[in-house]
Amino acid sequence: MTNKMWGGRFASGPSQIMEEINASIDYDQRLYNQDIDGSIAHALMLADVGILTKADTKKIIAGLEKIRKEIEAGTFQFSRQLEDIHLNIEARLKDLIGAAAGRLHTARSRNDQVATDFKLYVRNTIDHLQEQIGSLQYALAEKAQDYADCVMPGYTHLQSAQPVTFGHHCLAYVEMLARDQSRLTDARKRLNECPLGAAALAGTSFPIDRKQTAKALGFERPTANSLDSVADRDFILETLSTASISAIHLSRLAEELVIWSSAEFNFVTLSDSFSTGSSIMPQKRNPDAAELVRAKVGRIIGAFNGLAIVMKGLPLAYSKDMQEDKEMAFDALDNYSLALAAMTGMVKDLKPNKEKLKAAAGGGFSTATDLADWLVRVLNLPFREAHHVTGSIVALAENQNLTLDELSLTDMQTIEPKVTKDVFGVLSVQNSVKSRTSYGGTAPTNVRKMAKKWIKSLEKTNLAG
Ligand code: ARG
Known about the structure:
The termini are far apart. The strands form 3 sheets. This protein has a two-stranded antiparallel sheet with strand order 1-2. By secondary structure, it is mostly helical. Helix 9 (about 210-215) links the parallel strand 3 (about 195) and strand 4 (about 220). The radius of gyration is 31 Å and the shape is elongated. It has 20 helices and 6 strands. Helix 4 crosses helix 9 (about 210-215). It binds arginine.
């Protein structure tokens, strides 16, 4: 009889609970392609070194290909009793081809098998993510080109600081994403060693050819230490940490879109496809997609943290704890991919409001630095003094409720008698941005050049979407 105090859950019986906690098939079934590819490479190698007969090898491969088709057609019966994708496929292979199926597992273990499958999956995912990042960069570079002259306020502390161009702002994100790309390239390179053949943890006494399977599966080389091979989850941690950093970038852009699309800012209009209305307030147009991209970073960093905590106390080599890597990683990488797609769509559709941006760019005495620079350049004042003079001129303008270029020359001369009318040449936001031609600066000529360079290089690497 089940105990009344704790029997509620136990009513289903311990074996049921064990099955539930032990089975990973509900989520690791998505590794079926990698598992089948890995098994085929293993079988071909076993045949080449004389462990499998040609006839058995043929049967095994045909059976595995049939299973691939069944899974793709949705007719495959996944069983929780069979725990995971590896045992599900092996059991089905036995149904299909009989005893020969049992020979496939010679000289390997599920420990090296799962590490191989997961590495193949992550590698494939990285390739896809890199294409997506390329598409987002391309969309941003195109916006940068279209809005290379469009002035907007540049902020520090979210206080209007100096005018910049909208294109320059877009290109800032292109640079961040380029670093994300290179981090993913690194992660891919480091993960590209094949664990297959490490067997349970110690290697095997069978005369296998690990170089052959590594090559067949597109790996650079076999992993060098069998214990490390089955105990390592760096590859997923590294990918998740990269995804986390990149998701932070997406989140910052999303945050800007949320602010910019508010009625108070009205800097940009997001397309209807990426906004929603409110069920009760008819005037609302909510930037839901941007808000969700901003939120996704939570689960992505969460997955990195979660897996780091799972791994940190594990003695070598494999422990079942490591099965917990997949659900978190799948969720995080799926959502990172979705965030990239949503952000690309939003950027493509985005309409900057030029008039509003220009008006805002002139607010907050944003050309004060240009005035100080002019005092240095033309009147040869030391910068610290120029800064002080400019501060007094700004205070004067503020008192009269005027922008800097609206203040009269005579008023300015009450503070610095040597100022001439030439000063007005630098007080407009257009002239301010035009003058920022230092390398990496916001001048439209720079932006156009950089945007073009990015567009060209993204088209060349074929990453443009
Ligand atoms: N489903 C397992 C995992 O994801 C596969 C490896 C199981 N190995 C074992 N010896 N029980 O980690």
